[in-house]
Design goal:
This protein is an alpha/beta fold. The chain has three domains: 10-122, Rossmann fold; 149-368, Rossmann fold (3-Layer(aba) Sandwich), CATH 3.40.50.12780; 371-470, GMP Synthetase, Chain A, domain 3, CATH 3.30.300. The chain has helices spanning 21-37, 54-65, 79-89, 148-162, 179-192, 203-212, 225-229, 251-261, 335-341, 381-389, 427-435, 463-470, and strands spanning 10-14, 17-20, 45-49, 69-73, 91-96, 108-110, 128-130, 133-134, 142-147, 169-172, 195-198, 217-220, 241-244, 264-270, 277-280, 294-295, 300-304, 318-323, 330-331, 348-356, 362-367, 372-374, 377-379, 394-403, 409-417, 446-449. A hairpin with a 2-residue loop joins strand 22 and strand 23 (377-379). The longest helix is centred in the N-terminal third of the chain and has 17 residues, at 21-37. The termini are far apart. Residues 6-332 form the AMP-dependent synthetase/ligase domain. GO terms for molecular function: CoA-ligase activity. InterPro entries: AMP-bd_C, AMP-bd_C_sf, AMP-binding_CS, AMP-dep_synth/lig_dom, ANL_N_sf.
């Protein structure tokens, strides 16, 4: 998956315990032998249900070295969902880090009845090395089949684009069980021999790690940006780069983050089906803060009409299609979804509405399925959300699809007020603030208030949970 030299340079630190690259190499060899000794065989699926740390890195690399397939699973999921997922992917064994001290290996649990081996899924592609989960470009949770070449290629391409170095110390607190964490925060730094600070995320400790370890690179999701700007004491003088991914970063937030830390703030773009990175803002001069930059080296992109697949002119919105060494093998056990996502000539339809300028810089507009059609015009929830969130008195905001009395789609604002802001923001103040920055068709037509906007661990609005919370309440049409 990733080859590295067994040197005495620090590789991974967790809770004060540091493994050098030599230690990591030895531990991976030992763990791979142990996996084989349990009766597991090449091609078996091993679920990694673990938090960030040395143990996760060792297990991931050992599973690959033993010729098995790693399936990262979020340990925060309910037990019943984990069990269902393990059945779906045909996991022969699972490894959990619960209660395991830093630097020590967790136990391996065989899942077959009576200890008997579970055979791999019959539709598993023979080149599969990893089975991360994705919501899929059609919105249903699926296991994505990625090869070792997919992962290693993307890790190296991103490292080159972000100019990661052996001398870097990187803060890797976002979950390794998410494809962003696995490739960008773990495999990519390992590919250049950098030093990874691998800690499970703790809100009260995250920012301080940058000072403690004199970090040079940090990887975040948008919700973490405010932790930097709210911190008045930490020293960020060694920090040169902050990479934000997994969800769109508000340009105003990016500017505040740069002002506080002095580091360059760059966005990337990707999806699980592409291992995940396809784009990165390599140049602050060429890539405005609301863009995701250019395609990675060796990666092609095009903007296509979602209905016809024909390319659209630069500056026109369309679906972003990508093609390159990081594009998946397919979805496990779902050939129809694979065919819907991949063209016959290997293009991945991302499901994201985007615009590309003549210089090749890409700006993501929104998920195609989330775009609201108001009187024939397309309204991007992300654009409106960024403006609403900047209104004084608003802690967070989402924009969802509602319907007026005639059944026409309308943009509905869901607002989580800031309880510490006085006076509280009124609907009239919110509309006055937002309407002057939006075209008439983009303006919200109803407002709903809630205590918080549900978000995933990586900062994306959980629109399924939000819809369930709202029910039929889509506010009062204005």
């Amino acid at each position: 998956m990733i080859d590295f030299s067994p040197t005495d340079h620090p590789a991974i630190t967790e809770s004060g315990v540091t493994y050098t690259y030599r230690d990591l190499h030895r531990a991976v060899d030992d763990r791979a032998c142990h996996l084989r000794a349990t009766g597991l065989a090449a091609g078996d699926v091993v679920a990694l249900i673990a938090t960030n740390g040395i143990g996760f890195a060792v297990d991931l690399l050992a599973v690959h070295r033993a010729g098995m397939i790693a399936a990262p699973v979020n340990p925060a999921l309910p037990a019943a969902r984990i069990d269902d997922h393990l059945g779906y992917i045909g996991a022969a064994a699972s490894i959990t880090s619960a209660g395991t001290p830093a630097g020590q290996s967790a136990g391996i649990v065989l899942r077959g009845p009576g200890g008997r081996r579970i055979a791999p899924h019959p539709q598993l592609h023979p080149d599969t090395a990893c089975l991360p989960m994705s919501s899929g470009t059609t919105g249903t949770a699926k296991a994505v089949m990625l090869s070792a070449n997919n992962l290693a290629g993307d890790a190296r391409l991103f490292a080159a684009a972000a100019e990661l170095r052996r001398s870097d110390t990187v803060i890797s607190a976002l979950p390794f069980t998410h494809i962003y964490g696995l490739t960008v925060l773990l495999l990519s730094p390992l590919s250049v021999g950098a030093h990874i600070i691998a800690e499970p995320f703790h809100r009260e400790r995250f920012v301080g790690l940058h000072t403690t370890y004199e970090a040079t690179v940090s990887f975040i999701a948008p919700p973490l940006a405010d932790l930097f700007t709210a911190d008045a004491t930490s020293d960020f003088s060694s920090l040169r780069l902050i990479v934000s991914g997994a969800a769109a970063l508000n340009p105003a937030t990016a500017a505040a983050l740069h002002t506080r830390t002095g580091a360059r703030v760059a966005q990337g773009y990707g999806l699980t089906e592409a291992s995940p990175v396809t784009h990165f803002a390599r140049s602050a001069q060429l890539c405005p803060p609301d863009t995701v930059g250019h395609a990675l080296p060796g990666t092609c992109d095009r903007i296509a009409d979602p209905a016809t697949g024909e390319s659209v002119p630069d500056g026109s919105p369309g679906e972003l299609w990508v093609k390159g060494p990081q594009v998946m093998l397919g979805y496990l056990g779902d050939s129809s979804a694979t065919a819907a996502a991949l063209s016959d000539d290997g293009w991945l339809r991302t499901g994201d509405l985007a615009v590309k300028d003549p210089g090749g810089v890409v700006r993501i507009v929104d998920r195609i399925k989330d775009v609201i059609k108001y009187h024939g015009y397309s309204v991007s929830p992300v654009k409106v959300e960024q403006i609403l969130s900047a209104c004084p008195g608003v802690a967070d905001a989402a924009v969802v699809k509602g319907y007026d009395g005639e059944g026409e789609e309308i943009p509905v604002a869901v607002i989580a007020p800031d309880p510490e802001h006085h006076p509280p923001v009124t609907d009239d103040r919110l509309l006055s603030f937002s309407n002057r920055q939006l075209a008439h068709y983009e303006q919200v037509r109803a407002i709903v208030r809630t205590d918080r906007i549900p978000r995933t661990a990586t900062g994306k609005i959980d629109r399924t949970a939000l819809a369930a919370r709202l029910g039929n309440n889509t506010g009062t049409t204005r």
